[in-house]
Amino acid sequence: MKFYDRKFAVEYDRRLAAEGYPGRLLERVEHELGGARSVIDVGAGSGFFAIPLAARGFLIEAVEPSKYMLDILRGKLDETTAPRIRIHQTVWEEWSGEKCDALICLHSLYPIPDPRAAIEKMIKSAARRILLVRSDEGSRNLTGILREETGRARDPGIFVRLVEETLRELGVRYSTAIVEQRRTGVFHDLDGEARYYCGHLGLKHDQFEKIRTIIEEHAVRRGDRYEFEGIYRDVLLIF
Length: 239
Ligand SMILES: C[S@@+](CC[C@H](N)C(=O)[O-])C[C@H]1O[C@@H](n2cnc3c(N)ncnc32)[C@H](O)[C@@H]1O
What we know:
Helix content: 25-40%
CATH topology: Rossmann fold
Number of helices: 9
Radius of gyration: 18 Å
Distance between the termini: 29 Å
Mean pLDDT: 94
CATH architecture: 3-Layer(aba) Sandwich
Bound molecules: S-adenosylmethionine
Number of domains: 1
Number of strands: 8
Shape: globular
Order of helices and strands: HHEHEHEEHEHHEHHEE
Largest sheet: 8 strands, mixed
């Protein structure tokens, strides 16, 4: 999996940080956590939520299988956050621990092989659960454009539907909210950008030229750099 690759993990963290992720999403998630104190972060990644939430006083159980994502997360700890984050290098399916006040799973459901079982486990593991999944509908970003133009477009609402169906089957009440973010990616090296997207989308190197051309067509050139403003539309499911 790409998150188990050191270079990909470093690049993931660098890019998202440069775009200002998670931005106002953090306040939204904090708001939804209400009065929770202990929080499980499923697929905590490089700590985009775990670190600032710990800084704000939450006690985090960070569940993350990738050693390289965790290396980055550890590098962000300081004397305030370190005592408030417990790190578990494992997949969610194998995590075992005490029930917490709340659980967050933010863009981490996609790589979990059995998302239904994962959701059932989330329900048992915390009193309040906050899941964030992408909805390609209304989104406009380079990943989506490249997918479309290479004939790899995704079903836009697949994860939202999957979570909703699972919760309905289990008889669990939930609420949803759409969250939209605009994030601008800036890059100087068109070849590097094309290489990243080939890796990110699992495309063979023979697609490199095509990917490079599509990026060049869609990005705005300003002097020696390129910019692309992406729109990301996600759905929060709270249950
Ligand atoms: C797109 S990242 C999101 C990370 C973080 N929540 C964020 O918003 O930046 C997905 C994360 O899920 C992790 N992951 C993959 N398989 C997993 C599993 N079975 N259980 C828990 N996390 C998993 C990946 O290693 C990766 O760090």
